[in-house]
Design brief:
Chain lengths: 417, 275
């Protein structure tokens, strides 16, 4: 163990320093040129109010205590860091660990953020919650806490996604949420986001918009990152306990980028830790049917922030494509765009087919059925693990469980359920 | 003095308010939309807003969403929109043209190049829905340099602390979004408007236009009674949409019906005498 690693471990979750990569965003909500608050004037006062309310909550120890209570006894944290022995043997190379976010209540990392934001919404006196969802993981998490606290809940979900994620739609309705299928555009996450913003602008007085990823107008990217950073903080401590040092490589899938940001952020100031974000390449990065916003997009403005977007030369936003509804979005959180530009995080792609293979590999070797989103991270881990030495510690973030995806996977494997 | 300021000054002299109709560029096709644009001043338009089609109009209701989709399908782009304005300017040097839309197509075009080309085409002002004053730094400079007014939106949620900030960045006129919501849905009551206007007047000397939810001649008249101008968008687009054939193409009815509605709105607006 090197001296640098020791000091990094001792620093742990300490407050970010001004010259740290963890210091962003600036007061305007910018990470470099990315981020900001590009919303209609009607929403601007609400976004500013949210910023102030979040800052006050963050400074209040009682808020932290309350959140910790729910994270432990309701969400089920900490999630384990699992040494994937058979997968490691099968791939040959790096020692592969899995951060088991799929074991959280509701089956994904989404509840970490939702728990934080619902406590904030309650502090702000809001009685109605709206949210967008792609795969339905964020929608289920949101509907869950609304049931827990007795709040009205409306979830916007693209009509295409309603079709391919039926189990989650049924779950949300059981939980008492109204699920509104959105038919505009291609009926996926981008369209659900538009419709949730339209609801918010119409119902500003009583409604809280519970954004599910590290995107949207400031302070959402920062706030969601803060709530998700528990993933990386635990990983840091757990790897210390398991191996006595920091991990060497961390791999996470990216749609909007919340699970990746959550596990990356506590390691941004540790240059020895290689961070890799895996975008959904869809049918191939150059197939025209992809969701790889950083690898194939350009900076632009959508949904409240400036970030990398899939768009045509006229600035019209392209439809994304991915087998995974949760990654099927033509943008990405602004902090990722900045981390890509400064080169701190590597961004790569994994195709639909690679994800399907990794889905089966993980299931077969570890007895863990990963979400198709997480399978993209596993796919890239499977590519690089054999090229790394057996001393290399590689962590894959298993952001969600795959039960919701078995119909999609079965269809691709030619099986009728 | 800009074309917008000149027009408002002239109307003030005549003792009446302004009617600002809206059309979506290339809806349902380039030629129809250019013909409509050219005919609007004759039917009573005092200023005209041209919606720039965007794939993700998150502040618009269903009517304008569909219009944007038709416009894009018909091949709209920023280049085409500016070309349309230039064609309009060939025989109308006086009616102010305001482009209304979202920021990304402007970013994709390039802020400075866009402002220069827009001014050259004959555009007078810009309304960028998702660009609050805090995020206007990249566009403000080039717009001023090109002589384009940046028209600011004020909403019912804009509080007294924020109002001077918003008005401080504005030029041309202030666009008062009279309801909380998307375009073309609810209509503000006369009481709501009467309550909102004094607050605005105290914060700015610019003319005030009221938009979002104005559908009927009566509502347009009520808006100019309270403020200086009425913006009518979704109601005109709904008429246009209703006139299309099953494939979404223009019919011989399209222009006459939209223009008849515009004339009725203009008549109501002009019937209001202002001191």
């Amino acid at each position: 163990m090197s001296a640098a690693d020791t000091s990094g471990a001792e620093r742990g979750v300490a407050e970010a320093l001004p010259n740290s990569l963890r210091a962003g965003p600036d007061p305007r909500g910018r990470f470099g040129i990315f981020g900001g608050r590009f919303v209609a004037e009607t929403l601007m006062p609400l976004v500013l109010e949210l910023d102030a309310a979040y800052a006050a909550a963050k400074a209040d120890p009682a808020f932290r205590t309350e959140l910790d209570y729910y994270l432990k006894d309701y969400v089920g944290r900490p999630s384990p860091l699992w040494f994937a022995r058979r997968l490691t043997e099968e791939l040959g190379g790096a020692r592969i660990y899995m951060k088991r976010e799929e074991l959280n209540h509701t089956g994904s990392h989404k509840l970490n953020n939702v728990m934080g934001q619902i406590l904030l919404a309650r502090r702000m006196g809001r009685s109605r919650i709206v949210a967008e969802t792609g795969a339905g993981q964020h929608g289920v998490a949101t509907a869950t806490v609304c049931a827990l606290f007795g709040l009205k809940c409306t979830i916007y979900m693209g009509a295409t996604d309603v079709e391919r994620q039926k189990p989650n739609v049924f779950r949300m309705r059981l939980l008492g949420a109204e699920v509104v299928p959105v038919t505009s555009g291609a009926g996926t996450l981008k369209d659900a986001m538009n419709e949730a913003m339209r609801d918010w602008v119409t119902n500003v007085r009583d409604t809280y918009f519970l954004v599910g990823t590290v995107a949207g107008p400031h302070p959402y990217p920062q706030m969601v990152r803060d709530f998700q950073s528990v993933i990386g903080e635990e990983t840091r401590t757990q790897m210390q306990e398991a191996e006595g040092r920091l991990p060497d490589v961390i791999v996470a899938a990216i749609g909007g980028g919340s699970n990746a940001m959550g596990i990356f952020h506590p390691f941004l100031d540790d240059p020895s830790v290689r961070l890799i974000g895996v975008e959904a390449a869809g049918r191939g990065l150059d197939s025209g049917e992809t969701a790889a916003s950083i690898l194939r997009g350009r900076p632009g403005v959508l949904h409240g922030n400036r970030t990398y977007l899939l768009q045509n030369e006229d600035g019209q936003i392209d439809e994304a494509h991915s087998i995974s509804a949760g990654l099927d979005y033509p943008g990405i959180g602004p902090e990722h765009s900045w981390l890509a530009d400064i080169g701190r995080v590597e961004y790569v792609g994994a195709t639909d087919d690679q994800a399907l293979d990794a889905f089966q590999l993980c299931t077969r070797t570890e007895g863990i059925i990963p979400a198709l989103e997480s399978a993209h991270a596993l796919a890239h881990a499977a590519v690089i693990a054999p090229t790394l030495s057996p001393e290399t510690l590689l962590v894959v973030n298993i952001s969600g469980r795959g039960d919701k995806d078995i119909f999609t996977v079965a269809a691709h494997l030619g099986v009728t359920l | 003095m800009s074309r917008i300021a000149r027009r408002f000054a002239a109307l003030k002299e005549q003792g009446r308010g302004a009617l600002i109709p809206y059309l979506q560029a290339c809806d349902p096709d380039y030629d129809t939309s250019l013909a409509l644009l050219r005919a609007m001043p004759g039917a009573g338009a005092d200023l005209i807003e041209i919606g720039v089609p965007f794939s993700d109009p998150s502040a618009d209701g269903p009517t304008i969403q569909l219009a944007a989709r038709r416009g894009l399908k018909a091949g709209s782009s920023m280049v085409r929109v500016l070309e349309m304005v230039a064609r309009f300017r060939e025989d109308d040097a006086d009616t102010p043209i305001i482009l209304m839309g979202y920021l990304n197509p402007i970013e994709a075009y390039g802020h400075a190049r866009f402002c220069a080309d827009a001014a050259r085409a004959g555009v007078d002002g810009l309304i960028v829905v998702d660009m609050p004053p805090e995020e206007a730094d990249l566009l403000d400079g080039p717009a001023v340099e090109a002589g384009l007014d940046i028209i600011r939106l004020v909403a019912p949620t804009t509080d007294d602390v924020r109002l001077p900030v918003v008005c401080g960045h504005a030029s041309g006129f202030i666009y008062y979004v009279s309801i909380t919501g998307v375009t073309g849905t609810r209509t503000a009551s006369s009481d709501e408007l009467a309550a909102a206007l004094p607050r605005l007047r105290a914060a700015t000397d610019l003319p005030v236009a009221i938009g979002f939810g104005i559908r009927s001649p009566e509502q347009a008249a009520a808006a100019v009674r309270a403020a200086d101008a009425a913006v009518v968008a979704s109601a005109l687009i709904a008429t246009l949409e209703d006139s299309l054939d099953e494939q979404g193409r223009a019919t011989p009815d399209t222009l006459p019906r939209v223009l008849a509605q515009l004339s009725a709105l203009a008549e109501a607006v002009r019937s209001v005498r202002k001191a």
